[in-house]
Amino acid sequence: MKIITVSETFSVSDQIRIEDIAQLAEQGVQLIICNRPDGEAADQPSVNSIAEAAAGKNIELIHMPFVAGGLTDDIAARFRELMANNLKTHAYCRTGNRSLQLWHSISSEQLEKKLSAVQNTGQATQHFDVVVIGAGAGGIAVSASLLKRDSKLRIALVDPSTKHYYQPGWTMVGGGVFKAKSTERETTKLVDKRVSLLQQAVTKVKPDNNTVVLHDGAQVHYEQLVVAPGLTINWGAIEGLEETLGKNGVTSNYRYDLAPYTWELVQKTQRGRAIFTQPPMPIKCAGAPQKALYLSADHWLKTKRLDNIDIDFCNAGGVLFGVPAYVGALQSYMDKYGVSPSYNHNLVKVDGDQRKAWFDVTDAEGNKSQLCKDFDMLHVCPVQQAPAFIADSGLADQGGWLAVDPHSLCHTEYANIWGLGDVMNTTNAKTMAAVRKQVPVVAKNIISVQAGQAPRAKYDGYGSCPLTVERGKIVLAEFCYGGRVAPSFPNWINAGTKPTRLAWWLKSLALPFVYWHMMLKGREWMTHCPEEKT
């Protein structure tokens, strides 16, 4: 059970088990809402069995089932009534996504009423020098970086999650190199004690008032705002995907609980067809779909199964990799593993029970058709987008991403709002390595502005993608804006655009240590950023 705390009185999770009831009771839960229809999966506990166990702990259970994309007005209205009782409530479904959708069904009108009620009670708005939205890699790192530069800053970090994940490690989990648990930490143990951690979701930013509105209706005032919530994974954008994830041979390294299933499938697959997909850009780590393919194919090659397995790489885009300098090395591995990439193939539908996947295919003339493929294993890279509150707050570009200057990372309209990480509309790769270089730029510029000076630090678009082309070798792709290759290490480590074993050790040993013990603590190793001359 992976709990996401949405507000003081509401949390969600994936499917709960009878043994989880005791934990929910200890947390003071008074009401459980099940949003999952009975019988969705063979291993799913029945609602009655969960209700019986909950009753033993004096917890009521209400069954409000709906399928993905099937939330009705009646269910939403009933949910609003339950929330009005102000009971400590926990909702669950198979993944937690439907329960979160139900929470988001609370209308903006109700939110404004809540906010008005808070203001009328005289409850003081919290004031901070810097508010950071998002306790991911960027949010925690920039909080620490700011405090290194000015220990007197009053900083609030806003994020509902209780767990923090080293997401670059999930590819290695899916390849049998890391254990999933090694990528997980308690959020509270990573955040500097001088930072006020507000474990709630953000519903809106009011940039003209310098306030952030939280899910419970409270508002937080800022002088400087760092927007670093990451991006949103939209599993529901592919028809039938949510219902079959984690079973029927359908998996994804883009989720903590599914990466181990990827490795399980890789070990079990003896023959047939394995499909690896990549959706339209932008996505988090554009090389990740290929990494899953390479590590899987390498295992099948070394266990003498590759000749019996057809591998498809179905890419919604038109090229293998966005930086031409690295395409040659990657194509050589596609050839080695017998893969012929299928470009302009966008996954739109999955039927896990029948082991079928449908793709929208666009030909060279722009004509569109649909193609169905059978599979024995399907690794899906999901559709990704910016969180909805970015557009709702008037901070987005036309695509919904946070609009910032690509070098200063300052918002294009509001001089006291800064972007960081995957949420931005910058053209760099959305990777942890990019965030590592962005953090000191944002921290230095905020310190300058707070001192009445102009921001001078500049981000050059650096990103890195350690492409795990086989177990023990990596093509260490490093590049800046415009696709310019920008190696950080001498050739004896990364060999330019060729795979090396030293780059593998960097990825598997050095970088996790740098992440947990340096980056998140404000120790900025190899993060020099240029500054404008005065």
From TrEMBL:
- Which Pfam families does this entry report, sorted A to Z? BLH_phosphatase, Pyr_redox_2
| Alphabetical list of SUPFAM superfamilies matching this protein | FAD/NAD(P)-binding domain (SSF51905)
Annotated TM spans: none
All copies of the FAD/NAD(P)-binding domain together span: 128-248
Listed InterPro entries:
BLH_phosphatase-like (IPR005939), FAD/NAD-bd_sf (IPR036188), FAD/NAD-binding_dom (IPR023753), Prot-tyrosine_phosphatase-like (IPR029021), Sulphide_quinone_reductase (IPR015904)
Which residue intervals define the domain Beta-lactamase hydrolase-like protein phosphatase-like in the entry?
5-104
- UniProt-recorded name of the protein: Bifunctional protein tyrosine phosphatase family protein/NAD(P)/FAD-dependent oxidoreductase
